[in-house]
Design a protein that fits this description.
Layout lengths: L6 H17 L14 H6 L5 H7 L20 E5 L9 E5 L9 H5 L11 E4 L7 H4 L10 E2 L5 E3 L11 H14 L3 E4 L1 H14 L8 E4 L6 H10 L4 E7 L7 E5 L5 E3 L5 E5 L12 E6 L11 E10 L12 E7 L3 E4 L2 E4 H8 L8 E5 L4 E6 L5 H13 L5 E6 L13 E3 L1
Parallel strand pairs: 3-5, 3-6, 6-7, 7-8, 17-20, 18-19
Antiparallel strand pairs: 1-2, 4-5, 8-9, 9-10, 11-12, 12-13, 13-14, 15-16, 17-18
Helix pairs in contact: 7-8
Amino acid sequence: MNPYISTDSLNSLDEFIRNSIRDVPFYNKYRLSDKLNYEELRTLPIIDRKDIRDNFPRNITSNRIFLSSSLMPKYLKIWSTSGTSGDRVSVVGDTRIDGMPDNFKLFLGTSICRSSEIKMAIITSPICNGSTCNRLSIMSYKERLSGPEQCKLTLQSPPNLFNISHSYITNTTQELELFKPNIILADPIYLYLICKRCEQFGISLNCPEMIFHSYEYCPKNILSYLKNFFSTSSIYSYYGATELGGAKLGMECKYGNMHSWKSQSILEIIDKSMNHCNYDEIGELITTNIANPYMPLIRYRVGDLASWKKDTCNCVNADWPILELHGRKSESIIINGKIITLRLLDEIISKHSDIELYKLFISKAETILEVYDTELNKTTAMRINNHFSELGLADISFHNKNQFSLEKSLKFKLLSTY
C-alpha cells in the first residue's frame, strides 16, 4: 500500500476542504483547482494549536452552527484539551461520531455484536476532554454516567497517583462491579498504577472483554504487565486527539497492527522539509479530521511522530494503512543528525523486564534514567548504558524513585529533553 494519499482519500478531502472553505471563515482564503490532487494538497498550509487558540470560537468553526449554549445542538459540546503539548485549547466536539469502526466485531475479534451492547468505563487524568472531567472529584456515581442508556462511566481519578489509597481502590472496584463494563478505556500509566495498588492490597479487579489504552504512550513492559494482570482481556491501542472534536486517528486490530482510521481522519507523515515520508521513515504526523465538519482542522499538526509500515494485514480493514507510533515530537532528541524517539529508547529498556515505569532526562551532555520502585542490578544498568552509548547518548546516571512529578495536564511524561 502506498503511504501517500490514496485516490479515495483525496476524494474525501476534496469534498471536505471545499465545504470548509464555504462554511468556515478561517479557510475562506483557501483556493482549490477543479479537482484536488496530491501536489495541490502538499501546498495547503499546515496549522497547529496556535491557529486554534487564535481563531476559536468564531473563525475556525462552521457558520452553520450557533455556539451559544441555548442554541447549539445537544450533540455538540465544547471540549478542552488536557494541555500535555502546550496551553489548553477549546474545540467543538461532535458526540455522534462513532467511537468504534462499523465492522468492529470482525476488526477486533470480539463477541460484542452491536455498538448498543458496549458498556465502557473510562480511566484517565482528571483533566481531559470535557467539563465533566474537571469536576470528577465532586461528582457522584450517577453524575459520572453518560451516553445513550448511560453506557459510559467515567471513573474518578486517584488524588495522588503514586500513593493511591485503600479507600480509592475499594470505591473504584465496587463501581466497576456495579457497572460491569465490557470495555475499559484507560490511560495506561493510571491503569498500571491502579493495578499495582490492587495487588498490594490483595483486591481483585474483574477482567472486561477488552481494554483500550490511549491518552499517552504505553511503555512495552507496562503493556506486558497489563496483559498478564488482565489475562482474559484483549488489549488494544486506541489513538485519538481531543483537538479533532471526536474524530479518531487510528486503532489496533486483532492482529496487532495500528491502522489509520481513514473514514474519520486522513493522515500524512512529513519530514522536516515538509515532504511526505516513505515507508519506515519517521516523521511528524499531520491530520485532517474529515468526520467533524463543525470544527474542521485541515492538515493539523498533532505533535506526534510516526512512520508508515509496508506490512499487509488480514483484518477486515486491510485497506486502512498501517502506521507505527513513535511518541510525541517533544519526547525526542536529535543526536548526530539522527532522531532518537521514545519508541526507540523504550525498545531498549523493555528488554529488561524488571523495568516497567521510568522517566528519562536527556541532553547532549548527560542522560538520567529514573526507574520506578526498582533497584537495577549492575548487569542491567551496563547493558542499557551500552545500547544508549551506541546511539550517541551520554553515559547514564541511574536513580530509583518511588514517585514522579506529573505534567500540568496530570499526565506522565516518559522523556524530557533539554
